[in-house]
Design goal:
566 residues; alpha/beta; Rossmann fold; GMP Synthetase, Chain A, domain 3; nine-stranded mixed beta sheet; five-stranded parallel beta sheet; 18 helices; 27 strands; AMP-dep_synth/lig_dom; ANL_N_sf; AMP-bd_C
Length: 566
């Protein structure tokens, strides 16, 4: 035998298949054909029915020449149709483009044009929004406009007038569209796992949204990583509070098929709805932004289910929830797993891997540990915090700030039609997140801020996240977000936007503001203390993230903080 023969054995059809999460659905239908796959109001389907419906969707699309290279956009909240789109569209060889329902018509028009969506599937509630977006697109393209196939998704929870409105304008009803498809459609997995499975768009807060392109391999690996990271077992009951249109629901549509679990759809996320699903639907897991956790903790007692009938596992992502919220969730019986990631990394790709010895710590100390973004997912090959000037890792001292960078199979293919952004994002062989963090001695990373959210006051860097964490400890504060406001003396100073808890007497905002500032002076360095406080609801994205760019604009409109004069 030659010295290198051991590495020269070739791939063949028997020992190599391109990775794709689509096969999870076929297996679920085989293993548990009669197990409930999805519940939405009075509707429920089994895994066999879901598989057949997805094959019908793929077949119906294929009959209309939708295939490899085609993009299908879907504008919908968490409903069975959106779940089915994650399988049926790529089964036809096409790319699924889930659209944020909270975007305006102008932005959606840009997305449809940029992605060249050949089909638009839209929930009846959002049909007029889609219609307006398509009109803008038609006006721009003029005689060159080729209208996409328009499919309207009916929902029993919606006013039926909106459905009739869509039908009167030529849209095809989703169930009627499925009837044109074959439930035994012979779909084929991609021959190349690098083929695109999904296209999603960033928020576009500072420029036009960027199209994030994801492949079958990454979706497969992330779907299974979710299982390992969260220690999930077959038959889980998962509540859809996280929008499926956000990072493809962090790949959980595919994860649930792999586990033959049950999806409980929640069209609108309320504390009452979440607690009701836990009590009545056997929910064991759900994902949610920190703002949702805050809502659950502070919900009126008559909306809560206390104690919970079982431990309910919650995955939250991004900037750390305030320690007070984490403590509240633990006291209510929720077990929170803190993760972090981006659209460009298929959703969460780091996890605060919980260590058994932390169970012996006080709830306050546990919350501090849980506020860290943690270590890389099992499906991610590289993660570090680096000095962007020389790309050298920062010391693991818990204080030196650097940028979080990623490398591996769950990093996007790139941004669609945007070579300049790709060059910047992938500089020096890493994906650059733009998030600033420290690395602790145990290797766990902790976000300190977005690079654009750091407040530079008198030459000193102030982490808006750390100021917010102190504000959340104030007994009257429900939500808090801190941004930079122009300051005549210091260049910038912290400006706090605060939502007060229900029941707090808001008649004297000046008195409350003074009390908040007094609290801050007792709990943080003097230069961190907000010089201005604004009360009211915080603007949020569809996933519950505070839109800091909106708050920054408001702070700028307020004008600079005036230099005090004697």
């Amino acid at each position: 035998m030659g010295e290198r023969d051991i590495d020269d054995l070739p791939k063949n059809n028997a020992n190599y298949t391109a990775l794709t999460p689509l096969g999870f659905l076929e297996r679920a239908a085989l293993v548990h054909p009669n197990r409930t796959s999805i519940v939405h109001g009075s509707l429920s389907y089994t895994w066999l029915q879901t598989y057949q419906r997805c094959r019908r969707l793929a077949s119906a699309l294929a009959k209309r020449s939708i295939s490899s290279g085609s993009t299908v956009a879907i504008i919908a909240p968490n409903t069975p149709a959106l779940y089915e789109a994650h399988f049926g569209i790529p089964m036809a060889g096409a790319v699924v483009n889930t659209v944020n329902v909270r975007l305006n018509a102008g932005t959606i028009s840009f997305l449809l044009e940029h992605s060249r969506s050949a089909v638009v599937m839209v929930d009846q509630e959002f049909f007029k929004l889609a219609e307006e977006a398509l009109k803008l697109l038609a006006d721009k393209a003029k005689s060159n406009f080729k209208p996409p196939i328009l499919i309207v998704i009916a929902d029993e929870d919606c006013d039926q007038k909106s459905l009739q409105y869509a039908l009167d304008r030529g849209a095809v009803e989703y169930e009627k569209f499925l009837e044109t498809g074959d439930p035994e459609f012979s779909w084929k997995p991609p021959q190349d796992e690098w083929k695109t499975i999904a296209l999603g768009y960033t928020s576009g807060t500072t420029a036009s949204p960027k199209g994030v392109v994801l492949h079958h391999r990454g979706a497969y690996l992330m779907a299974l990583s979710n299982v390992v990271i969260w220690k999930m077992t077959e038959g889980v009951v998962y509540l859809w509070t996280l929008p499926m249109f956000h990072c493809n629901g962090w790949c959980f549509p595919w994860t649930l098929a792999a586990l033959c679990g049950t999806s409980i759809c929640l069209r609108q996320v309320t504390a009452k709805g979440v607690y009701s699903a836990i009590a009545n639907n056997g929910v064991t897991h759900f994902c949610a932004a920190p703002v949702v956790l805050n809502t659950l903790v502070n919900a009126p007692q008559n909306e809560k289910v206390v104690p919970l009938p079982r431990v309910v596992h919650v995955m939250t992502a991004g900037a750390a929830p305030p320690t007070s919220v984490l403590q509240g969730m633990a006291q209510h019986g929720f077990r929170v797993t803190h993760t972090y990631g981006l659209s460009e990394t298929y959703g969460p790709s780091t996890v605060n891997a919980w260590k058994p010895e932390w169970d012996k710590l006080s709830l306050e100390e546990q919350a501090k540990r849980n506020s860290r973004q943690g270590v890389r997912y099992v499906g991610l090959e590289g993660l570090d915090v680096v000095n962007t000037k020389d790309m050298k890792p920062v010391p693991a001292d818990g204080t030196t700030v650097g940028e979080i960078v990623f490398r591996g199979n769950v990093v996007m293919k790139g941004y669609l039609k945007n070579p300049k952004a790709n060059a910047e994002a992938f500089a020096n062989g890493w994906y650059h997140s733009g998030d600033l963090a420290v690395k602790h001695p145990d290797g766990y990373i902790e976000i300190k801020d977005r690079s654009k959210d750091i407040i530079i006051s008198g030459g000193e860097n102030i982490s808006s996240v750390e100021v917010e964490n102190v504000l959340y400890k104030h007994p009257a504060v429900m939500e808090a977000s801190v941004v930079a406001r122009p300051d005549e003396q210091w260049g910038e100073s912290p400006c706090a936007f605060i939502t007060l808890k229900p029941g707090v007497n808001q008649s004297d905002e000046h008195k409350i503001s003074e009390d908040v500032m007094k609290f801050c002076r007792s709990n943080m360095p003097a230069y961190w203390v907000p010089k201005s406080v604004v009360f009211g609801p915080l603007p949020k994205t569809a996933t519950g993230k505070v839109q800091k760019h909106v708050l920054r604009a408001k702070a700028k409109e307020m004008g600079p903080v005036r230099k005090s004069r004697l």
